Amino acid sequence: MLRLHLMLSAFFGFTGVALGAFAAHGLKSRLSAEYLAVFQTGVHYQMIHALALFGVALLSLHAPSRLLSIAGGAFVLGILLFSGSLYVLTLIGIGKLGIITPIGGVAFLVGWACLGLSAWRLTP
To answer: Which residues cross the membrane (predicted)?
Structure first.
């Protein structure tokens, strides 16, 4: 899982920067201020969780656990569902995908909870 989490972290970080630049330069004149803010929220959460995934990967080097694997998977799922649904909503206008966004948010919460439990279980 270490290699996969590191590669996904790099991928999501790279695409997060690219999407943020795309929003700032390519979408500014095409989207309403409200939709641009929604898109930027997707980018923001993607970047935060790309870094969280990087942290999960590094922590798994020192204290591998099933909880860390679940946390990493939950962060990936959260990025795909939360950020992805916001991108599709703003770029394509499929409003019904908005129902997926909270599921991605719950995945983020599960990831953070699993990371916290994993830290709790670490022996000093």
So the answer is: 47-63, 70-93, 99-120
Residue 86 within a domain:
yes
Residue 121: count of CB within 10 angstroms of its CB: 10
* Residue-number span of the structural domain to which 102 is assigned: 2-24+34-120
Closest CA to 121 of 65, 55, 70: 65
76 occurs within a structural domain: yes
Torsion sign (Cα): 105, 100, 28, 25: positive
Residue 29 domain-assigned? no
The pTM (predicted TM-score) of the whole model is 0.94
Of 81, 41, 67, nearest to 122 by C-alpha is 67
